[in-house]
Amino acid sequence: MHLKKARAYKIKHSYNVKDSITRYQWILQLAIDYIWENIDWVEKKVRNYYTIPKTMKNVKLLKQQGKKFKVYGKKIYVYYTAKRLIPKIPRSPKFVKELRDYLQVFWKQTSYASHYVDSAIRTSYWILESWRENYLNSKFKRRKPTIKSRFARIKNSLFRVRDGELILTIVPRQIYQKFKLDDKWFYDRIKDWKLGEIILKDKELILMFTKETEDENISKVIGWDMNMFTMDGYGDEIGAVKKSIKELYRIHITYHNKRRKIQKMLKKNPKQAKRLLKKLSKRERDKVRDFIYKFTTEIAREFQDYVHVFEDLNKEAMYNRSKKHNRNISLHDWRKIVEVLKYKVKVVEVDPKFTTKTCSRCGSLNTVVKNGTVKCLDCNLEIDRQLNASINIYLKGKGLKLSHENWVKLGLTEDVGSLGVPPNGAEPDDVSPMNPEGNEGDVAQGEVG
Ligand SMILES: [Zn+2]
After folding, report:
1. pTM over 0.70
2. Pick from 263, 252, 246, 183: which is nearest to 12 by CA?
3. Is residue 17 assigned to a domain?
4. What phi and psi, each to the nearest 5 degrees, are found at residue 17?
């Protein structure tokens, strides 16, 4: 299998790069502004839905109003069509040339290398693409992205590595900055790797190394289903595995409660309260990050010779547009886990459509998802919900069709469903104070897909 591995390392620096970053930000924002003004907004009708509790009264009312709806679990999904403006981001070569010429006019007044302009263009597209995705998922408003964090992305034409030293061009043929690499702890790990890109910040440098390998060792596949308390896997040779991520949940709850206490003093002492809240948020983010780094390191070590298959969590949001606070926090953590894992192992993302609802044995959608199990009405399989999802993800990752034959070929038996591994440390009555209903994630994905 052909692989592109990537690793990122940070080094601190004490150079004064304030000016270069400020100018980079300025050109980056100019690029975004320019592209934004040239976006073509196309009006389109889209189908959307909202949910209301399932009651006789609601059903009756909806029937009277002649609305389209579907009952599922304890909820009613009410469908409607709305007009939306879909952005078409201009990206023709002609347009990009125009943009480049426009930016060069400004950039030429500085003495910095013109390669920074190309990097800014690439980064601006990347930012707008990610804004667009969030906008289409109704997460962002129709508002132009503005650059807040201070960084500059630096292409490989602006630096070189020689004799264990990184040399970065600031002003061509005049100003170079040198960073020693061979005394860094990670040097041995990246010696024969290629330095692909650098992200320059005020006090640190993030180095992105890549390596192309033909890796015959990696042929095993593991599919992962993300849940609030656990990451549920199904893999070659090992079968079902369960990894607890309950610590993340615990962190969020702890800080949620701390914030609530402080919010009470918001009226009396708003200034101090705001300062404390900000501090708490930062500490929460740090704790989450630390856990995720540690967790992904363990996963990467334990399953280093596996291809890790996940649902594409950006698309996931399209199928399961839960407005629930908790779920959004989880989704955010899951994305981060996948993102970090990508630096450590080979990750493949698959379409999340119907991964919960589909019977992993016969492929039928004629299933009932209830109380943590999936029951297939066609082939009578009864299986743990998370296990079913992880098998589906695993099979999608392998590019295999869902069929009885494949089940048998893979050595899956009816018993696999009754493994009934309890979620690590997760009690059935673990109910979040943020979400008193406690039925997080019970809605089958793909229900409205
Ligand atoms: Zn079935």
Report:
1. no
2. 183
3. yes
4. -115, 15
